[in-house]
Amino acid sequence: MRFFHIIATILALFPFAAAAQNSNQPYYPVVILDRDAGILGIEDQITPDLDRSFNRALAAVPNPRVLVLNSPGGRVAPALEIAKKVRARGMNTRIRSGQECFSACALIFFSGTTRDARGQLGVHQISSPSGDLVTGQFAIADIIETLDEFGVPSEVVT
């Protein structure tokens, strides 16, 4: 009985993980929208392990061409890793009407060879809950360098 109580507690704390990942979408929050056309999506927060899920989804799609984004954002480091992979593969990025791509998600959006934003795209200043300025400075340097590689106008950075 205690085992089921522990499982119920875990599911209550992390409902998105248990409910979203299933046999149809084993890489969630990375989803394969159209395997044959090479269309993938990111459907939730950018977490530290998202890059691993993205790699697995890429391996399952023979010719990834488009990444559809619908994310409130999240962690910068995995977003930058995914962005570099999107750019290296020459993928396009898209935000569909009625969907959003905020914060760290925007870093991935800007990596697209062709960018199509019909939904909401939002950027903001970097923040750190710990107030660690050194880590923040390194993150800003990585962001500026990566966005410059993607040809993003400096006005977006400032």
What does this structure look like?
- The protein is built from seven helices and seven strands, in the order H-H-E-E-H-E-H-E-E-H-E-E-H-H.
- Helix content is 44%, strand content 16%.
- The chain has a five-stranded mixed beta sheet with strand order 1-2-3-4-6. Strands 5-7 form a two-stranded parallel ribbon.
- The N and C termini lie far apart (55 Å).
- Helix 4 packs parallel to helix 6.
- By secondary structure, the chain is α/β, with parallel strands linked by helices.
- Strand 2, helix 3 and strand 3 form a beta-alpha-beta unit.
Q: What structural keywords apply?
A:
158 residues, alpha/beta, five-stranded mixed β-sheet, 7 helices, disordered N terminus
Query: Count of helical segments?
Result: 7
Unreliable runs = 1-19
Largest sheet: 5 strands, mixed
The end-to-end span amounts to 55 Å
Q: Helix proportion of residues, in percent?
A: 40-55%
Radius of gyration: 17 Å
Strand portion, in percent?
A: 15-25%
Overall mean pLDDT score?
Answer: 83
Main sheet: strand order: 1-2-3-4-6
Shape: globular
Please give a quick description of this structure.
With 158 residues, the chain is of the alpha/beta class. Helices cover 44% and strands 16% of the residues. Helix 4 runs parallel beside helix 6 (133-149).
Chart the SSEs and their pairings.
Elements: H1 2-13, H2 15-20, E1 30-34, E2 39-42, H3 50-60, E3 66-69, H4 76-88, E4 92-95, E5 100-102, H5 104-109, E6 115-117, E7 120-122, H6 133-149, H7 154-157
Parallel strand pairs: 2-3, 3-4, 4-6, 5-7
Antiparallel strand pairs: 1-2
Helix pairs in contact: 4-6
